[in-house]
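Researcher: Structure for this, please.
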Amino acid sequence: NRRQDLLICLGDLSDGWPDCYQVFEELLTISNLVLIKGNHDVWLSAWFEQGDAPDIWLSQGGRSTIHSYATVVPENHKLLLRSAVKYYILDEMLFVHGGYNTIIPIEEHDEEQLIWDRSLVELALMHRHFKDKHQLTSYKKVFVDIHLPLCINQPTP
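Model: Predicted structure, token format:
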């Protein structure tokens, strides 16, 4: 239900698909939306606000994103992207785009760490590979964007 349900997006709204404009239009219909900032969102924001389009972004989907905007970027798309947060905590669960250093409190991390840090993901994958089931963080679960959702601290079947 678009008015009642909570949707938490882990970022990268402009991750190489030709329908970025439509993604924003759809998200604007969600009443309870939490948008977490991803690296592609940082690049998209720079393009929205200053027209900057670094080569790394263009080569990783930025061209498709730019083409999805035939003319001007609507102000409500810019506002939605500006509303993105670095992380979100709900019921002892952490939602973050990249990851974080578990020995530093989450609120002490800067945006770049939370967007780019993959050490927690690498550690979780290593523990999963070796079937080590001890909890890696103080959160019940940690959700990160790795192009396939990974829930850290969730026991493997």
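Researcher: Any notable elements?
Model: The two ends are 30 Å apart (CA to CA). Helices lie at 20-27, 39-50, 55-68, 75-82, 111-116, 119-129.
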